[in-house]
Amino acid sequence: MIHNIFRNDRQVCNFSWSIQITLIAGLLASLVWAPLAQADCDRTTIMSAGDSMTLGYNKELQFAVKPGYRGGQGGLRGLLADRGLLIDYVGSRDEDTADPCNDLAHESMEGRTISAIDNLRISDITPWKTYTPDIVLLMAGTNDFLNNYNYCEATPRTRFEAFANVLLKIDAVTEAKTGLIENILGESPATQLFVSSIPPINVINFTMACQLPDDEPDPSAWLATRQGNLNAEIDKFNQAVKQRVTDYGLANLHFVDVGSTLSLSDYEDGVHPKDLATFHKMAPAWFSGIISHVQQKIDVVGDRDNFQGGDAVDSPDKSVFVMSVLDHIATDPGQNPAADLDTAGSGGFDTNRPVGFTHSFALPPGALVTAATLALRVKGSAENYNDSIIYDQSALDPLNECASSCLRKQYSPQITFKDLLGREPVQQEVLNLRMNLAKVPVRIHTQFNAGDRWPGGADAHHNLLGLLSDGEFNMIVVDDTTVDYSQLTITYVLAGTRAGELNGDGVIDIKDIDILRNALNTDAYSDLDPRDIDGDGRITILDMRKLVLQCDHPRCAAN
User: Fold this and answer.
1) Tally of structural domains, the chain
2) 300 vs 191: CA distance, rounded Å
3) Mean pLDDT along residues 224-229
4) % residues pLDDT > 70 (the chain)
5) pLDDT at residue number 184
6) Are residues 141 and 224 in the same domain?
7) 302 shares a domain with 239
8) Which domain holds residue 475?
9) DSSP-assigned states of every residue in 26-47
Protein backbone atom coordinates (compact mmCIF):
# COMPACT_ATOMS: atom_id res chain seq x y z
CA MET A 1 0.00 0.00 0.00
CA ILE A 2 1.00 3.63 -0.30
CA HIS A 3 1.82 4.92 3.16
CA ASN A 4 0.81 8.24 4.65
CA ILE A 5 -1.07 9.73 1.72
CA PHE A 6 -3.75 9.74 0.28
CA ARG A 7 29.08 -4.13 -10.02
CA ASN A 8 31.39 -3.39 -12.08
CA ASP A 9 34.07 -0.85 -12.96
CA ARG A 10 34.75 1.36 -15.91
CA GLN A 11 34.58 -1.19 -18.71
CA VAL A 12 31.08 -2.45 -17.94
CA CYS A 13 29.77 0.97 -17.02
CA ASN A 14 30.61 2.20 -20.50
CA PHE A 15 27.75 0.03 -21.70
CA SER A 16 25.37 1.00 -18.96
CA TRP A 17 22.59 3.31 -20.07
CA SER A 18 19.20 1.59 -19.93
CA ILE A 19 15.65 2.92 -20.41
CA GLN A 20 13.99 4.22 -17.34
CA ILE A 21 11.05 2.32 -16.31
CA THR A 22 9.39 3.37 -13.16
CA LEU A 23 7.62 0.55 -11.53
CA ILE A 24 5.49 1.62 -8.62
CA ALA A 25 5.32 -1.05 -6.01
CA GLY A 26 7.11 -4.04 -7.53
CA LEU A 27 10.80 -4.73 -7.71
CA LEU A 28 13.69 -6.16 -9.60
CA ALA A 29 16.15 -8.56 -8.12
CA SER A 30 19.88 -8.30 -8.37
CA LEU A 31 23.04 -9.54 -6.75
CA VAL A 32 22.75 -9.50 -2.97
CA TRP A 33 25.48 -7.25 -1.64
CA ALA A 34 24.01 -6.36 1.73
CA PRO A 35 21.85 -8.05 4.34
CA LEU A 36 18.30 -8.12 3.10
CA ALA A 37 15.97 -6.77 5.73
CA GLN A 38 12.86 -4.68 5.36
CA ALA A 39 12.92 -1.77 7.78
CA ASP A 40 9.62 -0.45 9.08
CA CYS A 41 10.03 3.28 8.47
CA ASP A 42 6.32 4.03 8.02
CA ARG A 43 7.14 5.79 4.74
CA THR A 44 6.38 5.26 1.10
CA THR A 45 9.00 2.77 -0.12
CA ILE A 46 10.76 3.23 -3.46
CA MET A 47 12.92 0.72 -5.31
CA SER A 48 15.17 2.27 -7.97
CA ALA A 49 16.14 -0.54 -10.32
CA GLY A 50 17.95 -0.79 -13.62
CA ASP A 51 21.50 0.01 -14.73
CA SER A 52 24.27 2.54 -14.09
CA MET A 53 21.91 5.47 -14.51
CA THR A 54 20.06 4.13 -11.49
CA LEU A 55 23.38 3.68 -9.70
CA GLY A 56 24.43 7.21 -10.63
CA TYR A 57 27.68 6.22 -12.30
CA ASN A 58 30.16 8.91 -13.29
CA LYS A 59 33.94 8.50 -13.30
CA GLU A 60 34.41 11.97 -11.84
CA LEU A 61 31.95 11.56 -8.97
CA GLN A 62 33.85 9.90 -6.14
CA PHE A 63 30.93 9.21 -3.83
CA ALA A 64 31.07 6.01 -1.78
CA VAL A 65 27.35 5.85 -2.47
CA LYS A 66 26.38 7.65 -5.66
CA PRO A 67 23.21 9.74 -5.23
CA GLY A 68 22.28 9.77 -8.93
CA TYR A 69 18.79 11.20 -9.40
CA ARG A 70 17.75 9.69 -6.06
CA GLY A 71 19.42 11.87 -3.44
CA GLY A 72 21.33 15.04 -2.84
CA GLN A 73 20.09 18.60 -3.00
CA GLY A 74 17.68 18.72 -5.90
CA GLY A 75 17.21 14.95 -6.05
CA LEU A 76 13.99 12.97 -6.06
CA ARG A 77 13.90 12.44 -2.30
CA GLY A 78 13.99 16.18 -1.66
CA LEU A 79 11.32 16.96 -4.24
CA LEU A 80 8.98 14.40 -2.71
CA ALA A 81 9.70 15.62 0.82
CA ASP A 82 8.84 19.18 -0.21
CA ARG A 83 5.48 17.79 -1.39
CA GLY A 84 4.98 16.14 2.00
CA LEU A 85 5.85 12.60 0.89
CA LEU A 86 8.55 10.97 3.03
CA ILE A 87 10.17 7.98 1.33
CA ASP A 88 12.38 5.04 2.15
CA TYR A 89 14.63 3.75 -0.65
CA VAL A 90 14.88 -0.05 -0.58
CA GLY A 91 17.10 -2.56 -2.36
CA SER A 92 20.10 -4.82 -1.84
CA ARG A 93 22.70 -2.34 -3.19
CA ASP A 94 24.15 0.48 -1.06
CA GLU A 95 21.85 -0.40 1.79
CA ASP A 96 22.83 1.23 5.10
CA THR A 97 21.65 -1.13 7.82
CA ALA A 98 22.54 1.47 10.45
CA ASP A 99 20.14 4.01 8.94
CA PRO A 100 17.89 2.12 6.49
CA CYS A 101 15.17 4.76 6.44
CA ASN A 102 17.51 7.44 5.07
CA ASP A 103 19.92 5.49 2.88
CA LEU A 104 20.13 5.48 -0.92
CA ALA A 105 19.49 1.75 -1.42
CA HIS A 106 18.69 0.59 -4.92
CA GLU A 107 18.63 -2.45 -7.18
CA SER A 108 20.75 -1.41 -10.15
CA MET A 109 22.51 -3.76 -12.56
CA GLU A 110 25.20 -1.83 -14.37
CA GLY A 111 25.74 -2.59 -18.02
CA ARG A 112 22.80 -4.96 -18.33
CA THR A 113 20.44 -5.26 -21.28
CA ILE A 114 16.72 -5.74 -20.71
CA SER A 115 16.96 -9.52 -20.95
CA ALA A 116 20.01 -9.59 -18.67
CA ILE A 117 18.09 -7.63 -16.04
CA ASP A 118 15.23 -10.11 -16.29
CA ASN A 119 17.58 -13.10 -16.12
CA LEU A 120 19.22 -11.74 -12.97
CA ARG A 121 15.80 -11.08 -11.49
CA ILE A 122 14.86 -14.71 -12.12
CA SER A 123 18.16 -16.20 -10.93
CA ASP A 124 18.14 -14.27 -7.65
CA ILE A 125 14.60 -13.67 -6.54
CA THR A 126 15.55 -12.85 -2.94
CA PRO A 127 15.13 -9.06 -3.16
CA TRP A 128 11.72 -9.56 -4.78
CA LYS A 129 10.61 -11.61 -1.82
CA THR A 130 12.28 -9.45 0.82
CA TYR A 131 11.20 -5.94 -0.15
CA THR A 132 7.65 -4.89 -0.86
CA PRO A 133 8.10 -1.35 -2.20
CA ASP A 134 5.24 0.94 -2.99
CA ILE A 135 7.23 2.43 -5.87
CA VAL A 136 9.86 0.94 -8.17
CA LEU A 137 11.90 2.96 -10.66
CA LEU A 138 13.65 0.99 -13.40
CA MET A 139 15.93 1.78 -16.34
CA ALA A 140 16.37 -0.73 -19.16
CA GLY A 141 17.06 -0.45 -22.85
CA THR A 142 20.08 1.70 -23.66
CA ASN A 143 22.50 -1.18 -23.21
CA ASP A 144 20.54 -3.08 -25.84
CA PHE A 145 21.37 -0.32 -28.32
CA LEU A 146 25.00 -0.09 -27.23
CA ASN A 147 25.62 -3.84 -27.30
CA ASN A 148 23.24 -5.22 -29.92
CA TYR A 149 22.73 -2.43 -32.47
CA ASN A 150 25.49 -1.81 -35.02
CA TYR A 151 25.34 1.97 -34.93
CA CYS A 152 28.72 2.22 -36.69
CA GLU A 153 27.17 1.07 -39.96
CA ALA A 154 25.89 3.70 -42.38
CA THR A 155 22.46 2.01 -42.58
CA PRO A 156 22.15 -0.38 -39.61
CA ARG A 157 19.37 -2.93 -39.45
CA THR A 158 16.41 -1.67 -37.42
CA ARG A 159 16.19 -3.24 -33.95
CA PHE A 160 13.84 -1.03 -31.94
CA GLU A 161 10.87 -3.40 -32.15
CA ALA A 162 12.93 -6.41 -31.09
CA PHE A 163 14.20 -4.51 -28.06
CA ALA A 164 10.69 -3.31 -27.19
CA ASN A 165 9.44 -6.91 -27.41
CA VAL A 166 11.89 -7.95 -24.70
CA LEU A 167 10.42 -5.23 -22.52
CA LEU A 168 6.78 -5.93 -23.35
CA LYS A 169 5.11 -7.82 -26.17
CA ILE A 170 1.33 -8.05 -26.56
CA ASP A 171 0.04 -10.72 -28.94
CA ALA A 172 -2.32 -9.09 -31.43
CA VAL A 173 -4.65 -12.11 -31.48
CA THR A 174 -4.60 -13.64 -28.00
CA GLU A 175 -3.60 -10.47 -26.09
CA ALA A 176 -1.06 -12.61 -24.21
CA LYS A 177 1.73 -10.54 -22.65
CA THR A 178 5.41 -11.44 -22.35
CA GLY A 179 8.58 -9.60 -21.41
CA LEU A 180 10.22 -7.93 -18.43
CA ILE A 181 7.22 -5.73 -17.60
CA GLU A 182 4.83 -8.68 -17.60
CA ASN A 183 7.20 -10.73 -15.47
CA ILE A 184 7.42 -7.93 -12.91
CA LEU A 185 3.66 -7.51 -12.83
CA GLY A 186 3.33 -11.25 -12.44
CA GLU A 187 5.48 -11.13 -9.31
CA SER A 188 3.77 -8.02 -7.94
CA PRO A 189 0.35 -7.56 -9.58
CA ALA A 190 -0.56 -4.62 -7.36
CA THR A 191 2.65 -2.78 -8.23
CA GLN A 192 2.44 0.69 -9.69
CA LEU A 193 4.73 0.44 -12.69
CA PHE A 194 6.00 3.48 -14.58
CA VAL A 195 7.89 2.93 -17.82
CA SER A 196 10.01 5.76 -19.15
CA SER A 197 11.70 6.67 -22.38
CA ILE A 198 15.45 6.31 -22.68
CA PRO A 199 17.62 9.35 -23.46
CA PRO A 200 19.65 9.93 -26.62
CA ILE A 201 23.25 8.76 -26.90
CA ASN A 202 26.15 10.97 -27.96
CA VAL A 203 28.13 8.70 -30.30
CA ILE A 204 30.69 11.42 -30.98
CA ASN A 205 31.57 11.67 -27.27
CA PHE A 206 31.12 8.01 -26.49
CA THR A 207 34.29 6.38 -25.17
CA MET A 208 33.63 3.34 -27.35
CA ALA A 209 32.90 5.43 -30.44
CA CYS A 210 33.05 4.04 -33.96
CA GLN A 211 36.45 3.81 -35.63
CA LEU A 212 36.73 6.24 -38.51
CA PRO A 213 37.86 4.94 -41.90
CA ASP A 214 41.41 6.11 -42.66
CA ASP A 215 40.32 7.83 -45.86
CA GLU A 216 37.19 9.54 -44.47
CA PRO A 217 37.29 13.19 -45.73
CA ASP A 218 34.68 14.52 -43.26
CA PRO A 219 34.90 12.75 -39.86
CA SER A 220 32.33 15.03 -38.20
CA ALA A 221 29.70 14.35 -40.83
CA TRP A 222 30.51 10.63 -40.76
CA LEU A 223 29.90 10.45 -37.00
CA ALA A 224 26.89 12.76 -37.13
CA THR A 225 25.16 10.44 -39.60
CA ARG A 226 25.66 7.44 -37.33
CA GLN A 227 24.56 9.39 -34.28
CA GLY A 228 21.42 10.49 -36.10
CA ASN A 229 20.62 6.90 -37.12
CA LEU A 230 21.06 5.64 -33.56
CA ASN A 231 18.92 8.28 -31.91
CA ALA A 232 16.21 7.97 -34.55
CA GLU A 233 16.05 4.28 -33.64
CA ILE A 234 15.90 5.19 -29.94
CA ASP A 235 12.99 7.55 -30.67
CA LYS A 236 11.11 4.70 -32.37
CA PHE A 237 11.82 2.46 -29.40
CA ASN A 238 10.46 5.08 -26.99
CA GLN A 239 7.26 5.49 -28.99
CA ALA A 240 6.81 1.71 -29.21
CA VAL A 241 7.20 1.32 -25.46
CA LYS A 242 4.78 4.16 -24.77
CA GLN A 243 2.17 2.64 -27.09
CA ARG A 244 2.48 -0.82 -25.54
CA VAL A 245 2.12 0.55 -22.03
CA THR A 246 -1.01 2.39 -23.18
CA ASP A 247 -2.40 -0.66 -24.97
CA TYR A 248 -1.98 -2.83 -21.88
CA GLY A 249 -4.61 -0.67 -20.17
CA LEU A 250 -3.64 -1.36 -16.55
CA ALA A 251 -4.35 1.26 -13.92
CA ASN A 252 -0.98 0.55 -12.32
CA LEU A 253 1.15 0.66 -15.47
CA HIS A 254 2.25 4.09 -16.71
CA PHE A 255 4.67 5.72 -19.16
CA VAL A 256 6.92 8.57 -18.01
CA ASP A 257 9.11 10.52 -20.43
CA VAL A 258 12.26 10.82 -18.31
CA GLY A 259 14.63 10.30 -21.25
CA SER A 260 13.77 13.60 -22.89
CA THR A 261 15.07 15.53 -19.87
CA LEU A 262 18.66 14.83 -21.02
CA SER A 263 20.36 16.14 -24.16
CA LEU A 264 23.52 15.23 -26.09
CA SER A 265 25.52 17.89 -24.24
CA ASP A 266 24.72 16.42 -20.81
CA TYR A 267 27.18 13.51 -20.84
CA GLU A 268 30.76 13.10 -19.66
CA ASP A 269 31.37 10.08 -21.88
CA GLY A 270 28.48 10.14 -24.35
CA VAL A 271 26.30 7.99 -22.09
CA HIS A 272 26.48 9.06 -18.42
CA PRO A 273 25.50 12.51 -17.04
CA LYS A 274 28.55 14.64 -16.42
CA ASP A 275 27.77 15.75 -12.87
CA LEU A 276 25.27 15.42 -10.04
CA ALA A 277 23.25 18.43 -11.21
CA THR A 278 22.77 16.70 -14.57
CA PHE A 279 21.58 13.51 -12.87
CA HIS A 280 19.10 15.69 -11.01
CA LYS A 281 17.59 16.85 -14.31
CA MET A 282 15.75 13.52 -14.32
CA ALA A 283 14.26 13.94 -10.84
CA PRO A 284 11.33 16.26 -11.73
CA ALA A 285 10.05 13.80 -14.34
CA TRP A 286 10.12 10.96 -11.82
CA PHE A 287 8.49 13.27 -9.28
CA SER A 288 5.62 14.20 -11.61
CA GLY A 289 4.94 10.57 -12.43
CA ILE A 290 4.96 9.47 -8.82
CA ILE A 291 2.97 12.31 -7.33
CA SER A 292 0.18 11.74 -9.87
CA HIS A 293 -0.40 8.22 -8.57
CA VAL A 294 0.65 7.97 -4.94
CA GLN A 295 -2.87 8.46 -3.69
CA GLN A 296 -4.11 5.27 -5.26
CA LYS A 297 -4.58 1.88 -3.67
CA ILE A 298 -4.65 -1.22 -5.87
CA ASP A 299 -5.79 -4.68 -4.82
CA VAL A 300 -5.67 -7.67 -7.14
CA VAL A 301 -7.52 -10.94 -6.61
CA GLY A 302 -6.19 -13.80 -8.72
CA ASP A 303 -3.50 -13.57 -11.38
CA ARG A 304 -3.35 -12.38 -14.97
CA ASP A 305 -2.48 -15.79 -16.44
CA ASN A 306 -5.26 -16.11 -19.04
CA PHE A 307 -7.41 -18.64 -17.16
CA GLN A 308 -4.62 -21.06 -16.19
CA GLY A 309 -5.79 -22.78 -13.00
CA GLY A 310 -3.94 -24.48 -10.20
CA ASP A 311 -2.24 -21.48 -8.56
CA ALA A 312 -2.61 -20.73 -4.86
CA VAL A 313 -4.08 -17.31 -5.63
CA ASP A 314 -6.90 -18.98 -7.54
CA SER A 315 -8.43 -19.82 -4.15
CA PRO A 316 -9.02 -16.27 -2.90
CA ASP A 317 -10.06 -15.03 0.52
CA LYS A 318 -13.80 -14.82 1.15
CA SER A 319 -15.54 -12.71 3.75
CA VAL A 320 -18.42 -13.90 5.93
CA PHE A 321 -20.78 -12.13 3.53
CA VAL A 322 -19.39 -13.94 0.49
CA MET A 323 -19.52 -17.31 2.24
CA SER A 324 -23.13 -16.74 3.33
CA VAL A 325 -24.19 -15.95 -0.25
CA LEU A 326 -22.33 -18.97 -1.64
CA ASP A 327 -23.91 -21.19 1.03
CA HIS A 328 -27.36 -19.87 0.21
CA ILE A 329 -26.95 -20.37 -3.53
CA ALA A 330 -25.69 -23.91 -2.88
CA THR A 331 -29.13 -24.82 -1.52
CA ASP A 332 -30.65 -24.14 -4.92
CA PRO A 333 -31.15 -27.49 -6.66
CA GLY A 334 -30.25 -25.86 -9.97
CA GLN A 335 -26.80 -24.73 -8.78
CA ASN A 336 -23.48 -26.58 -8.59
CA PRO A 337 -20.75 -26.04 -5.96
CA ALA A 338 -18.86 -22.76 -6.08
CA ALA A 339 -15.71 -22.61 -8.22
CA ASP A 340 -12.30 -21.06 -7.65
CA LEU A 341 -10.80 -18.57 -10.08
CA ASP A 342 -9.44 -19.93 -13.37
CA THR A 343 -11.35 -23.17 -13.01
CA ALA A 344 -14.65 -24.91 -13.56
CA GLY A 345 -16.77 -25.81 -10.57
CA SER A 346 -16.43 -28.85 -8.35
CA GLY A 347 -16.81 -32.02 -10.37
CA GLY A 348 -15.92 -30.17 -13.57
CA PHE A 349 -19.20 -28.25 -13.82
CA ASP A 350 -18.99 -25.24 -16.13
CA THR A 351 -22.57 -24.14 -15.58
CA ASN A 352 -24.60 -22.84 -12.66
CA ARG A 353 -21.74 -22.32 -10.20
CA PRO A 354 -20.82 -19.03 -8.54
CA VAL A 355 -17.33 -17.59 -8.03
CA GLY A 356 -16.92 -15.50 -4.89
CA PHE A 357 -14.06 -13.44 -3.48
CA THR A 358 -13.21 -10.42 -1.33
CA HIS A 359 -11.00 -7.45 -2.12
CA SER A 360 -9.21 -6.42 1.09
CA PHE A 361 -7.15 -3.25 1.47
CA ALA A 362 -6.07 -0.60 3.98
CA LEU A 363 -6.35 3.11 3.26
CA PRO A 364 -4.41 5.70 5.28
CA PRO A 365 -6.16 7.23 8.30
CA GLY A 366 -8.53 9.99 7.24
CA ALA A 367 -8.56 8.95 3.57
CA LEU A 368 -11.64 10.01 1.58
CA VAL A 369 -12.34 8.02 -1.58
CA THR A 370 -12.97 10.07 -4.72
CA ALA A 371 -12.94 7.40 -7.45
CA ALA A 372 -12.62 3.65 -7.91
CA THR A 373 -12.60 1.30 -10.86
CA LEU A 374 -12.84 -2.45 -10.99
CA ALA A 375 -11.35 -4.45 -13.87
CA LEU A 376 -12.70 -7.99 -14.18
CA ARG A 377 -11.41 -10.48 -16.76
CA VAL A 378 -13.86 -13.32 -17.31
CA LYS A 379 -14.80 -15.96 -19.85
CA GLY A 380 -18.32 -17.22 -20.50
CA SER A 381 -18.08 -20.94 -19.83
CA ALA A 382 -21.70 -21.77 -20.69
CA GLU A 383 -24.99 -19.88 -21.01
CA ASN A 384 -23.66 -16.66 -19.54
CA TYR A 385 -26.09 -14.28 -21.27
CA ASN A 386 -27.82 -13.65 -17.93
CA ASP A 387 -24.75 -13.66 -15.66
CA SER A 388 -24.42 -11.00 -13.02
CA ILE A 389 -22.55 -9.83 -9.94
CA ILE A 390 -23.87 -9.91 -6.38
CA TYR A 391 -22.03 -7.45 -4.12
CA ASP A 392 -22.03 -5.93 -0.62
CA GLN A 393 -25.40 -4.18 -0.92
CA SER A 394 -27.17 -7.20 -2.40
CA ALA A 395 -29.68 -8.95 -0.18
CA LEU A 396 -32.51 -11.42 -0.51
CA ASP A 397 -35.42 -9.57 -2.03
CA PRO A 398 -38.90 -10.56 -0.85
CA LEU A 399 -40.42 -8.54 -3.71
CA ASN A 400 -38.65 -10.65 -6.31
CA GLU A 401 -40.54 -13.91 -6.23
CA CYS A 402 -39.53 -16.69 -8.55
CA ALA A 403 -39.98 -20.38 -9.01
CA SER A 404 -37.59 -23.04 -7.75
CA SER A 405 -33.99 -23.13 -8.98
CA CYS A 406 -33.63 -19.37 -8.91
CA LEU A 407 -32.25 -18.43 -5.52
CA ARG A 408 -29.44 -16.34 -6.96
CA LYS A 409 -32.03 -14.35 -8.91
CA GLN A 410 -33.67 -13.29 -5.66
CA TYR A 411 -30.76 -11.05 -4.69
CA SER A 412 -31.22 -7.33 -5.22
CA PRO A 413 -29.58 -5.16 -6.36
CA GLN A 414 -27.35 -6.94 -8.89
CA ILE A 415 -24.89 -5.77 -11.56
CA THR A 416 -25.45 -7.55 -14.86
CA PHE A 417 -22.89 -8.28 -17.54
CA LYS A 418 -25.46 -7.10 -20.05
CA ASP A 419 -25.62 -3.62 -18.53
CA LEU A 420 -21.82 -3.32 -18.25
CA LEU A 421 -21.39 -4.31 -21.90
CA GLY A 422 -24.49 -2.71 -23.41
CA ARG A 423 -25.35 -6.12 -24.89
CA GLU A 424 -25.69 -9.74 -23.88
CA PRO A 425 -22.38 -11.64 -23.56
CA VAL A 426 -21.68 -14.62 -25.77
CA GLN A 427 -20.69 -18.12 -24.63
CA GLN A 428 -16.90 -18.68 -24.52
CA GLU A 429 -16.32 -14.96 -25.08
CA VAL A 430 -13.44 -13.45 -23.10
CA LEU A 431 -14.57 -10.18 -21.54
CA ASN A 432 -12.54 -7.40 -19.94
CA LEU A 433 -15.29 -5.81 -17.88
CA ARG A 434 -14.79 -2.34 -16.42
CA MET A 435 -16.86 -0.91 -13.59
CA ASN A 436 -16.78 2.71 -12.48
CA LEU A 437 -17.80 2.23 -8.84
CA ALA A 438 -18.89 5.86 -8.61
CA LYS A 439 -21.73 5.14 -11.01
CA VAL A 440 -22.65 1.46 -11.40
CA PRO A 441 -25.71 0.26 -13.38
CA VAL A 442 -27.82 -1.98 -11.16
CA ARG A 443 -30.99 -4.09 -11.34
CA ILE A 444 -33.49 -3.69 -8.50
CA HIS A 445 -36.39 -6.13 -7.96
CA THR A 446 -35.85 -7.31 -11.51
CA GLN A 447 -37.17 -10.70 -12.56
CA PHE A 448 -36.00 -12.67 -15.57
CA ASN A 449 -38.35 -12.77 -18.53
CA ALA A 450 -39.71 -15.91 -20.17
CA GLY A 451 -36.44 -16.46 -22.02
CA ASP A 452 -34.52 -16.54 -18.72
CA ARG A 453 -32.90 -13.25 -19.71
CA TRP A 454 -32.55 -9.82 -18.16
CA PRO A 455 -35.19 -7.59 -19.75
CA GLY A 456 -34.52 -4.02 -20.86
CA GLY A 457 -31.76 -2.04 -19.20
CA ALA A 458 -30.52 -1.02 -15.76
CA ASP A 459 -33.04 0.27 -13.22
CA ALA A 460 -30.66 2.80 -11.64
CA HIS A 461 -27.04 3.85 -11.23
CA HIS A 462 -25.60 3.60 -7.72
CA ASN A 463 -22.54 5.16 -6.11
CA LEU A 464 -20.63 2.35 -4.39
CA LEU A 465 -17.64 4.38 -3.18
CA GLY A 466 -19.01 4.53 0.35
CA LEU A 467 -18.69 0.76 0.63
CA LEU A 468 -14.91 1.04 0.44
CA SER A 469 -14.53 2.78 3.80
CA ASP A 470 -14.64 -0.61 5.55
CA GLY A 471 -11.53 -1.85 3.77
CA GLU A 472 -13.16 -4.54 1.67
CA PHE A 473 -15.33 -5.03 -1.38
CA ASN A 474 -17.17 -8.31 -1.92
CA MET A 475 -18.19 -9.93 -5.20
CA ILE A 476 -19.99 -13.10 -6.21
CA VAL A 477 -20.02 -13.72 -9.97
CA VAL A 478 -22.94 -15.91 -11.04
CA ASP A 479 -23.31 -18.31 -12.60
CA ASP A 480 -21.81 -19.50 -15.90
CA THR A 481 -18.54 -17.54 -15.90
CA THR A 482 -14.88 -18.38 -15.28
CA VAL A 483 -12.94 -15.55 -13.59
CA ASP A 484 -9.27 -14.88 -14.36
CA TYR A 485 -8.66 -11.92 -12.06
CA SER A 486 -10.23 -8.84 -10.50
CA GLN A 487 -8.33 -5.58 -9.96
CA LEU A 488 -9.68 -2.82 -7.75
CA THR A 489 -8.08 0.63 -8.06
CA ILE A 490 -9.04 3.28 -5.50
CA THR A 491 -8.20 7.00 -5.67
CA TYR A 492 -8.42 9.02 -2.47
CA VAL A 493 -7.45 12.27 -0.78
CA LEU A 494 -6.59 13.02 2.82
CA ALA A 495 -8.25 15.39 5.22
CA GLY A 496 -6.86 18.88 4.74
CA THR A 497 -6.39 18.51 0.97
CA ARG A 498 -7.41 21.63 -0.91
CA ALA A 499 -11.09 21.57 -1.85
CA GLY A 500 -11.49 20.45 -5.46
CA GLU A 501 -8.19 18.56 -5.63
CA LEU A 502 -9.64 15.09 -6.03
CA ASN A 503 -6.68 12.90 -6.97
CA GLY A 504 -3.94 14.24 -4.72
CA ASP A 505 -1.56 15.40 -7.46
CA GLY A 506 -1.27 18.95 -6.13
CA VAL A 507 -3.27 20.72 -8.83
CA ILE A 508 -6.89 21.15 -9.86
CA ASP A 509 -7.12 20.21 -13.52
CA ILE A 510 -8.98 18.15 -16.08
CA LYS A 511 -8.25 14.94 -14.15
CA ASP A 512 -10.28 16.26 -11.22
CA ILE A 513 -13.08 17.36 -13.53
CA ASP A 514 -13.12 13.87 -15.05
CA ILE A 515 -13.68 12.40 -11.59
CA LEU A 516 -16.83 14.48 -11.28
CA ARG A 517 -17.90 13.78 -14.85
CA ASN A 518 -17.75 10.05 -14.18
CA ALA A 519 -20.05 10.43 -11.18
CA LEU A 520 -22.64 12.92 -12.48
CA ASN A 521 -26.17 12.66 -11.08
CA THR A 522 -25.35 10.27 -8.25
CA ASP A 523 -25.64 10.71 -4.50
CA ALA A 524 -22.65 11.69 -2.39
CA TYR A 525 -21.70 8.86 -0.05
CA SER A 526 -21.53 11.14 3.04
CA ASP A 527 -21.37 14.78 4.04
CA LEU A 528 -17.56 14.41 3.86
CA ASP A 529 -17.57 13.34 0.22
CA PRO A 530 -14.95 15.68 -1.32
CA ARG A 531 -16.63 15.46 -4.74
CA ASP A 532 -19.72 17.25 -3.41
CA ILE A 533 -18.27 20.72 -3.98
CA ASP A 534 -21.50 22.62 -3.22
CA GLY A 535 -22.54 20.39 -0.30
CA ASP A 536 -26.04 19.52 -1.55
CA GLY A 537 -25.61 15.75 -1.23
CA ARG A 538 -25.45 15.13 -4.98
CA ILE A 539 -22.73 15.12 -7.64
CA THR A 540 -24.11 17.38 -10.38
CA ILE A 541 -23.12 19.75 -13.14
CA LEU A 542 -23.12 22.52 -10.53
CA ASP A 543 -20.18 20.84 -8.79
CA MET A 544 -18.36 20.68 -12.12
CA ARG A 545 -18.95 24.36 -12.77
CA LYS A 546 -17.60 25.32 -9.36
CA LEU A 547 -14.55 23.12 -9.94
CA VAL A 548 -13.84 24.71 -13.31
CA LEU A 549 -13.70 28.11 -11.61
CA GLN A 550 -11.02 26.77 -9.23
CA CYS A 551 -8.95 25.18 -11.99
CA ASP A 552 -5.22 25.91 -11.93
CA HIS A 553 -4.96 25.90 -15.74
CA PRO A 554 -6.76 28.54 -17.84
CA ARG A 555 -7.85 26.00 -20.44
CA CYS A 556 -8.71 23.33 -17.89
CA ALA A 557 -12.31 22.84 -18.99
CA ALA A 558 -11.40 22.91 -22.68
CA ASN A 559 -8.88 20.09 -22.25
Assistant:
1) 3
2) 10
3) 87
4) 84
5) 81
6) yes
7) no
8) 298-490
9) --------S-------SSEEEE
